[in-house]
Amino acid sequence: MSQEQYKVPTASPSQQVSSSQAKEPDRSQNATGTQLESDHRCGDCAAIVHLTPRGPIRCTKCGCRIVHKMRTKRMMQFEAR
């Protein structure tokens, strides 16, 4: 199909989506609606920083950009041979 023959598809008023439904879903929440945050420790001042998936990677206290992910408190056991 040539460029001159192409027609832009238009949606009828019944197919149009309202602006509140057209918004992209918030990626910082999971399916249950709870906030997804992970705890990290600042590499400079050792403060605990809560980071969101799309948020900036920066310490809120000193502004350092080096953060280390904290270990989980869940017990993990591996079988070694």
TrEMBL record:
GO terms for biological process: DNA-templated transcription. Residues 1-39 are annotated as: Disordered. Residues 12-21 have a biased composition (Low complexity). SMART domains: RPOLCX. InterPro entries: RNAP_P/RPABC4, RPABC4, RPABC4/Spt4. It is found in: Nucleus. Pfam families: Zn_ribbon_RPAB4. The keyword Metal-binding applies. The keyword Protein biosynthesis does not apply. One of its GO terms (molecular function) is DNA-directed RNA polymerase activity. Belongs to the archaeal Rpo12/eukaryotic RPC10 RNA polymerase subunit family. This is Metallothionein-i transcription activator. Keywords: Metal-binding, Nucleus, Zinc. GO terms for cellular component: RNA polymerase I complex; RNA polymerase II, core complex; RNA polymerase III complex. It comes from the Eukaryota.
